[in-house]
Design brief:
The chain is mostly helical. 78% of the residues lie in helices and 2% in strands. The chain has a two-stranded antiparallel ribbon. The longest helix is centred in the C-terminal third of the chain and has 31 residues, at 269-299. It starts with a helix and ends with a helix.
Length: 300
């Protein structure tokens, strides 16, 4: 792996760290398996791209993408809580509908952004290398989002949301509205994913209707890998675990695909992902067995 590939993996690691935080919010905080992210990621890219090529300011286009993602998450939550539909089924319905909606938004399967102004353009015009600009902006945005999510989950509303995911019956007994908090939580989750999609479109120079395939797997992989390494017990550590897991996931994928002795090809990406997630899921159990073995050995 050369330096160019390393920085490319680091850039995507920060970007998909936003996806991981969104997935973590729905899976860990709300206990809501949400597949909408496979549709909200390309939706964020589609909205951002069509606004930019129409001459809209890139920051406004990015904000519009976030709003679009939040509406997608709100739709999934509303279908689930209003009609008491299974979580997975509600998210699959929304994800399926978003494919056609994204095509409607773009008017064609893909949009190129080469030569268009993006949020990175002002810094690039100062003579700063493009790669440095992208990584720096991604890093700062990820830290800003991490701080915002942490402050929200530490607030009274955030604590109520955490209580809803941990024990909805107890939360209801305290007067907490599970429906409202579920809608709010999924809206924030998919808003973060749509933000990642908008940044992806601007950094990679295109938006495509199929670019969201497998996004949920990448987000889950990042969450699981990060939790296996940091074993988080507080919110801020869990959020850092999402980012760390995303970066390590991208670096591992890059290393595996560039290790000539393994003979892997780009088409083996899903296989590598499955193996990586499987190893990460087994790590806590293996670590627990190792601790028990050392304790018995010390007692003996």
């Amino acid at each position: 792996m050369n330096l160019y590939q390393f920085f490319g993996a680091l850039e995507l690691g920060f970007l998909y760290g936003l996806v991981a935080m969104g997935v973590w919010l729905s899976f860990r905080i709300l206990d809501f398996p949400d597949l909408t992210v496979d549709g909200s990621f390309p939706m964020g890219a589609a909205i951002c791209a069509i606004f930019i090529v129409s001459g809209v300011d890139p920051w406004i286009a990015t904000a519009a993408a976030i709003i679009g993602g939040m509406i997608a998450g709100l739709t999934t939550a509303w279908i689930s809580v209003r009609f008491n539909i299974l979580h997975l089924l509600a998210s699959i319905l929304t994800m399926t509908a978003l494919y056609s909606i994204n095509l409607r938004i773009m008017g064609r399967p893909n949009i190129g952004l080469l030569g268009e102004d993006t949020i990175f353009t002002p810094l690039e015009n100062l003579g700063i290398p493009s790669g440095t600009v992208t990584i720096t902006v991604m890093f700062l945005l990820v830290l800003l989002v991490l701080y915002g999510v942490h402050r929200f989950l530490s607030s009274e509303m955030g604590l109520a949301m955490r209580a809803t995911g941990a024990n909805d019956k107890m939360a209801a007994a305290q007067g907490v509205s599970k429906k409202k908090l579920t809608i709010m939580g999924l809206s924030i989750s998919n808003g973060l994913v749509a933000l990642a999609g908008a940044l992806f479109a601007q950094s990679q120079g295109f938006a495509d209707v199929t670019m969201g395939v497998g996004t949920i797997i990448i987000g889950l992989a990042a969450v699981i890998v990060g939790e296996a390494i940091l074993n988080p017990r507080i919110i801020v550590t869990a959020l850092f675990a999402c980012i760390l897991g995303s970066i390590l996931y991208r670096l591992t994928i890059t290393l595996a695909l560039n290790a000539t002795f393994l003979g892997l090809q780009a088409s083996d990406l899903n296989l590598i992902t499955a193996l990586l997630v499987g190893i990460a899921m087994m790590t806590p159990r293996l670590r627990s067995k190792l601790v028990d073995f050392k304790a018995r050995r010390g007692a003996a």
